Amino acid sequence: MDLGLKGRNAIVCAASEGLGRACARSLAEAGVDLVINARREIELQVTAEEIASTFGVMVKTVCGDVTDTDVRAEIMDTCPAPDILVNNAGGPPPGNFRDWTPETWHLALDANMITPIELIRASVDGMIERRFGRIINITSGAIKAPIGMLGLSNGARSGLTGFVAGLARDVAQHGVTVNNLLPGPFETARLQGTLLGAAKSQGISVDEARTARLASNPSLRFGDPNEFGATCAFIASVHAGYMTGQNILLDGGAFPGTF
Description:
Layout (H helix, E strand, L loop, with lengths): L8 E4 L5 H12 L3 E6 L2 H15 L3 E5 L5 H10 L5 E4 L14 H29 L2 E6 L12 H21 L4 E8 L5 H14 L3 H10 L9 H12 L10 E4 L9
Parallel strand pairs: 1-2, 1-4, 2-3, 4-5, 5-6, 6-7
């Protein structure tokens, strides 16, 4: 399927590995030129070179923590007219809420709520003027089924979800869509950290925690990041212009609810 994106421009955050990288690759495969961001320069450059050589698109990089105002400004200077914005940031660490200080909460909110909103603020009016825009926020399956040890993520990402629900309805008439992608367990470094936290809290090995998590998923497997990237590219496509304000769950059927 031709996604109708050839020659478009996208910003993809936290794109050196994991789900962000998968999204960047799928967009590049559709012919999108990229500005990708991550904190680790070597990994970011390797990813940029691999994507550019594989798909023949332009890939520029901005290294740094996207929660930093100067880094966000550099991203927008490098891609001043994005057609697609993929907001993504590593989730805050697991733990017990009794151990979290106000500073801990502020850091989580900054990374997983305020920073995405600031990038949306910097890009959405241009999308409205050009009558095309796709804003995709990578959040978490925990939005629908909160995980106790991930309270920081539950709270911050739920705040972003509430904000997006209103924004999506305001900008839809201008050809701009805003949607959230909610990953369940995918084979990423983030999953390994979650399994490690679960193992410690339960007094079991990481292998035992992994086996238990696999057994609890109806698919009996973890997701492939390429599956996630392909979904992101479709939501960014011309074929998804009537889909907005949605929380799209990719979790292998783990969430048991009807709605």
